[in-house]
């Protein structure tokens, strides 16, 4: 690993820590809460917790990638804490190259269960990476579509009146109880150009990933994969101007874990 | 919540035993909880038997080791299962329960008809038993038969606080036997139930090690053809339902125990060829349904939930958590027989032996193949009329499958359209509905259909003497059993315990409870303090139970005489379902 990727990794690591800390703190709160419950309130009931809150941190992708546009780390992670109806979500994704976070964002959302398989999400997004770090209001839905497709569709409104949208779909194909292939597709759209962020209006980029993972335990799995990404329209123009390729194929290797 | 084990608050040596200690049972499991190779020798062997009218029970913590990894169990008088309590019908019993834990505790006498303040449910019948405190339960024993007791606090039942209750009838036993054994089944995990539950909340398929896979698909494609293999999956996938979802928690974490013995530990009950043995089978599991058989022996079922039934001879029976069955077996040969209790999802089994001499073993059968949940488990009466013959979806028409996502269009029960539409909505806590549930009682259930063995069903069971109350029920209370597997939510009518009002019975009335299972899982529903008199599809009395196991997409109705005033618990005995809110308070006033 050369110094460049090391620097990139450090940033990714910091982003992960930023994501983990609140979650861990909340989990600890939850534990101490249940401890403090005793003994007096528990004396009054049978200690049922049908509306208790739980927390989860899922680092779906934490990987190194190798592609035409360079090598670097990338991540995709989410954390939630809450009960059956309402949860606080933190979500982050991003990638680095050339010793910096190239693009990425961190979202904080209030998730609310609205139907058997769907939740609404309302909150904010903060952009990381090159250019100005924009802030957005976010509203979206997240859930499980028929045939087990996990979907996230989020719309964003920035303080400069720009509108953006992101759609992400994911599927898990089990070869065996441990070996599984995870296709993932993401598309981003913007209403207006933002040259400072090197993003143009319309469909800015799409990404299709195929990751083959092996669950050593339910909660820890290494994987290898390939990701095709493509930039479109004005975004592609910016990309060409930056002497990067519009189309990239990356080979990735990483780990997925949750707790 | 008992998330962390406090250190044992009392030395095991401080256990107090009362009069009439053992009936001749070996003290194999007494305090010593690694009972590998211990052999039972007499009646009720291997567990302490306490009989009489006065009992002192100490609840504490005991080190156990079932898997090679030491753990700590919550125990009664230091043993898991706790001592067998033997009462006499017509007597008054006094039980002093002392809490040696650092958290509150309780004991509920499952299936016993008693005053509500003796029922042992903290927050409903009493305030619980504080650490260091004692509580004296005192009540008249009005019934006879096989029952059991367990904690109703936190996760204590799942960590070992359970035991058998045997009540000898005032006269002689209707079905005499030469020997009498308790067969207590339960599921043990080295992981704390709180962390199992938390994992289910995060990933409800965590313990399912038989998820549909490409490997299955290839096998099916070879056997059924590509088209059938796709068809078999299509509806499940469209519905976001998992046909392998038979047990929420499996042998991935559970070790299944028989009388506190692991399968390798091999609990053994002795007999002389030609003798009649009464086996009192109790499912004290938190989450496990067992299919029990004794290869080479017919079982004559003589009692269900402590109530004598007209004897029926079967090869195999399915027992849901909290149910009890008494069976009589008559081994004639001078050889060992295996008691084999495989779990409904075929991920593991509990096992013991009946043998003429200690140390003998019989072959342990291979587990049956795993079977996917069938169409009748999903669509009820709309899938297959009468006895469910197909265990897969091979018999399904594609039209029916196309109908699935639009179940509202299906013909339903007789009720007005508005109520019907409201009842059949899905929502965050309800992932499916069954508009036309099946009402037949003669389906042995998923995995047991057409297996070549005579399998017990509720249709085979007829309680001797008929119902306790001949009155026709004055009204119906319909409760739908609801859940969302993805979110791991469970409820009645889509409403969790904490959001629900109590269900009210008028004192003295005879009413009918209609349970409709809108899920793909079994729910053993237990009404405290009053009997559940199950009716067949025609509305005639069938059998009397304290715990009624409702199969997926099934409707079962039973009559209740509300003759026991007070506040009662009413819940699913799958303990994580109960924990998640599949629970109601019933008020009789």
From TrEMBL, chain A:
GO molecular function: copper ion binding
InterPro entries per the UniProt record, alphabetical: Cu-R_B_prcur
Gene Ontology CC terms: cell outer membrane
Protein keywords: Signal
Superkingdom to which the source organism belongs: Bacteria
GO biological process, one term: intracellular copper ion homeostasis
Cleavable signal peptide: 1-27
The protein's name in its UniProt record: Copper resistance protein B
Protein's organism: Dyella choica
From TrEMBL, chain B:
Chain intervals for the UniProt region annotation (Disordered): 428-448
Domain of life: Bacteria
Keyword Oxidoreductase in annotation: yes
Stretches assigned to the Plastocyanin-like domain: 61-170, 180-342, 472-588
Any one GO MF annotation of this record: copper ion binding
CC annotations in GO: periplasmic space
Keyword list, A-Z: Copper, Metal-binding, Oxidoreductase
Pfam families: Cu-oxidase, Cu-oxidase_2, Cu-oxidase_3
Keyword Metal-binding: yes
InterPro entries: Cu-oxidase-like_N, Cu-oxidase_2nd, Cu-oxidase_C, Cu-oxidase_fam, Cu-R_CopA, Cu_oxidase_CS, Cu_oxidase_Cu_BS, Cupredoxin
Family matches, as PANTHER family: FI03373P-RELATED, MULTI-COPPER OXIDASE
Protein name, as recorded: Copper resistance system multicopper oxidase
Species for this entry: Dyella choica
């Amino acid at each position: 690993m050369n110094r460049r990727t090391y620097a990139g990794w450090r940033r990714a690591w910091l982003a992960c820590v930023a994501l983990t800390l609140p979650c861990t703190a909340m989990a600890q709160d939850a534990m101490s809460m249940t401890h403090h419950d005793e003994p007096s309130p528990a004396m009054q009931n049978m200690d049922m917790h049908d509306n208790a809150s739980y927390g989860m941190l899922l680092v779906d992708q934490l990987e190194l990638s190798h592609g035409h546009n360079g090598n670097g780390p990338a991540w995709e992670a989410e954390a939630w804490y809450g009960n059956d109806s309402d949860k606080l979500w933190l979500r982050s994704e991003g990638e680095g190259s050339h010793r910096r976070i190239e693009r990425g964002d961190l979202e904080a959302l209030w998730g609310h269960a609205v139907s058997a398989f769907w939740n609404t999400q309302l909150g904010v997004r903060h952009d990381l990476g090159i250019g100005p770090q924009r802030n957005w209001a976010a509203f979206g839905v997240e859930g499980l579509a028929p045939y087990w497709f996990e979907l996230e569709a989020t719309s964003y409104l920035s303080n400069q009146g720009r509108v953006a949208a992101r759609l992400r779909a994911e599927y898990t194909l089990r070869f065996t109880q441990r070996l599984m292939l995870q296709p993932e597709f993401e598309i981003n759209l913007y209403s207006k150009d933002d040259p400072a962020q090197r993003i143009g209006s319309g469909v800015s980029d799409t990404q299709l990933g195929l990751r083959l993972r092996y669950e050593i335990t339910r909660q820890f799995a290494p994987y290898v994969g390939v990701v095709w990404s493509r930039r479109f329209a004005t975004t592609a123009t910016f990309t060409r101007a930056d002497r990067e390729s519009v189309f990239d194929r990356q080979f990735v290797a990483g780990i997925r874990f949750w707790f | 919540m008992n998330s962390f084990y406090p250190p044992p608050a009392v030395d095991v040596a401080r256990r107090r035993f009362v009069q009439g200690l053992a009936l001749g049972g070996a003290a194999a499991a007494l305090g010593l909880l690694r009972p590998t190779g211990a052999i039972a020798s007499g009646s009720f062997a291997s567990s302490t038997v306490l009989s009489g009218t006065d009992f002192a029970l100490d609840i504490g913590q005991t080190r156990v080791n079932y898997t090679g990894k030491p753990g700590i169990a919550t125990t009664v008088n230091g043993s898991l299962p706790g001592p067998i309590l033997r009462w006499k019908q017509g007597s008054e019993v006094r039980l002093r329960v002392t809490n040696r834990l650092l958290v509150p505790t309780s004991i509920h006498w499952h299936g016993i008809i008693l005053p509500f303040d003796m029922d042992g449910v903290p927050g409903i019948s009493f305030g619980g038993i504080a650490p260091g405190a004692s509580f004296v339960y005192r009540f008249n024993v009005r019934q006879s038969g096989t029952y059991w007791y367990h904690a109703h606090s936190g996760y204590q039942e799942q960590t070992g606080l359970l035991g058998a209750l045997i009540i000898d009838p005032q006269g002689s036993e209707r079905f005499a036997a030469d020997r009498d054994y308790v067969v207590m089944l339960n599921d043990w995990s080295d992981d704390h139930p709180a962390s199992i539950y938390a994992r289910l909340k995060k990933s409800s398929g965590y313990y399912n090690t038989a998820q549909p896979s490409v490997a299955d698909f290839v096998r099916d494609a070879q056997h059924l053809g590509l088209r059938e293999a796709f068809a078999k999956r299509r509806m499940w996938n469209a519905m976001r339902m998992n046909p392998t979802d038979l047990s929420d928690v499996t042998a991935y974490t559970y070790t299944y125990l028989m009388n506190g013995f692991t399968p390798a530990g091999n609990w053994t009950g002795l007999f002389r060829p030609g003798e009649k043995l009464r086996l009192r089978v109790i499912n004290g599991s938190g989450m496990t349904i067992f299919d029990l058989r004794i290869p080479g022996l017919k079982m004559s079922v003589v009692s269900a939930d402590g109530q004598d039934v007209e004897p029926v001879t079967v090869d195999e029976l399915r027992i849901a958590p909290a149910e009890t069955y008494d069976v009589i077996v008559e081994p004639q040969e001078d050889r060992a027989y295996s008691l084999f209790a495989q779990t409904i999802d075929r991920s593991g089994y509990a096992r013991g032996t009946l043998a003429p001499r200690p140390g003998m073993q019989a072959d342990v059968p291979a587990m049956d193949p795993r079977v996917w949940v069938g169409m009748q488990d999903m669509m009820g009466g709309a899938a297959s009329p009468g006895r469910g013959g197909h265990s897969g979806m091979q018999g399904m028409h594609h039209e029916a499958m196309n109908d699935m996502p639009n179940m509202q269009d299906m013909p339903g029960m007789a009720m007005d359209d508005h109520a019907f539409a409201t009842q059949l909505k899905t929502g965050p806590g309800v992932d499916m509905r069954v508009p036309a549930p099946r009402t037949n009682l003669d389906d042995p259930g998923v995995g047991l259909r057409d297996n070549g063995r005579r399998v017990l069903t509720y249709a085979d069971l007829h309680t001797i003497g008929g119902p306790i109350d001949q009155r026709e029920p004055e009204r119906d209370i319909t409760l739908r059993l609801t859940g969302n597997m993805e979110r791991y939510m469970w409820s009645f009518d889509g409403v969790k315990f904490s959001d629900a009002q109590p269900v009210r019975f008028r004192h003295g009335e005879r009413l009918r409870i209609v349970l409709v299972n809108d899920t793909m899982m079994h729910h053993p529903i237990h009404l405290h303090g009053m009997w559940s008199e199950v009716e067949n599809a025609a509305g005639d009395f069938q059998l009397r139970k304290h715990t009624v196991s409702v199969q997926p997409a099934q409707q079962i109705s039973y009559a209740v005489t509300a003759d026991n005033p007070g506040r009662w618990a009413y819940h699913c005995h799958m303990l994580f379902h109960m924990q998640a809110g599949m629970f109601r308070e019933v008020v009789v006033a």
